[in-house]
Amino acid sequence: MGWGAYPPSSGPSALAFTPPSPVPAADAGPPAVVPEPVVPAPTPARSAEPALPPPTAFFPAVPESAPATVPVSRVSSPDEQTRARTGSADQQDRRSVFPLAAQGYTRGHAGAGHRHADTLEDSRRDEWHVQAPAGYGDEVQTAVHDHGHDHAYDHGHDHAYDEPHEVDHAVFGEPVVAPAPSKRSRRFRLVVGLGLAIALFVGASLVVVQILSPVLGIGKVTDYPGPGEGSVTVTVQPGSGPAAVANSLEKQGVVADANTFLKAFAATGGSLHPGDYTFKKEMPSSDAAQVLAGTSGEKVIYLALNAGLRVSESLDEIAKAASVDRKDLDALNAKPSEFGLPAQAKNLEGYLAPGEYRLPVGSSAKDILSKLVNTTLDELKQAGVTDPAKQYQVLTVASIVQAEGGRADYGNVAGAIYNRLKPNPETNGLIQSDATVTYGIGKKSYHISEAEKADQGNAYNTYQHAGLPPGPIGSPGATAIQAAAKPTPNDYLYWVTVNLDTGETKFSKTYAEHLGYAQQYEQWCQANAGKCK
Question: Is the pTM higher than 0.70?
Fold first, then answer.
């Protein structure tokens, strides 16, 4: 680097600057000839810094009383002067920011064995050295930064170029800054958000109400204003409870709500009886409750027939309940064809369906019998039996099932009867039913004698006559009809009821096994005297 000093306040590692003492004026005289400085041959350096030449007296000696250092203005290199005149705007901008000395002598990092293109050659640097007058000798004080080396040049880096530059907004445009929202826009967004939240809440509430309404009964009509219209017949089966009947009435559109009807029925104080009841569509629960309890004020004929009754027993009950002449009933019983029954039927035995009925006052004998017969025919059709001859056969089996077995065993008893009618080495086609024998002799008993079993004159004696008896032996209920129409498949040939109170029935495939169960029945009868008559 040149020996011209950096400005005191610039350059790397700037030292404190001591102002020079004034130099006394020299006497005028001829100018002294300044000899060319003698530069000794370079010696190997111990460090990366270039060796300084020995100080030479370039200026006249300065008295010791006034030693001073002379500030010398910095001399720019020719290349720098050229760049100062013709340099680019970018270089001018950098000169305005960085010290002039740094601009001239810091040009970035140069790799090993290579110098930056702007690095000054050693020979040219010597031409730019400021030559001091002779005479200063050892007392010449070096100016600030005259250390004989250039730190930026020696280390090959340029901090000015290394610094990141800000984005030139003249080229890329000014950054877009979103304006602060106004109070009105904030208020608008708040109102819109609140409105959406309310709408979502209301919508969700409506969905929840829609889902839970059927479960909680919200909005459900609990009663009709009445008086109702049309006609609906509802059958109350034996064993049905008030709740089951109430649900049936609601499903058929008689009452609006089953619970409301139950409260009204309880208020009547009446009791529930099996049978057919006639209601109106959409009638008040209180009116429907009175019809079911028999307190509606409407005059009806109440008739109740138990399952298993023989035709003579059923006619007795009808004559008593309906106040009709028994002779009229007997005459109609002898003419089954008037009710559409097959030729095999000699009377109405088996066709007078059991149950409870409420018939209009003044009903004739034929009207009453027709109602009972049609009920049985409907039950046969519901069981899938439509042929009249087949209906008569199924009705006969059903009457035996009704008399011989308990309700839970109807299917197995029917299956065993059909098995006995088939060819087999055990039964020879004989049903061997005690109930058929007692029917034939006109008595009701669980016991028959050996003589009665041997009586071939009894057409209903299934111990002597193979196959089914001439006809039904009583009035079977709907469950027995269903079992006879669709028996439970099994291999049984024998059955015996061992407990008359519970109806427990034992089944067997062989006669030997059957005898053991028959002994259990005899033991039960001995333990329960009077129940096995």
Answer: no
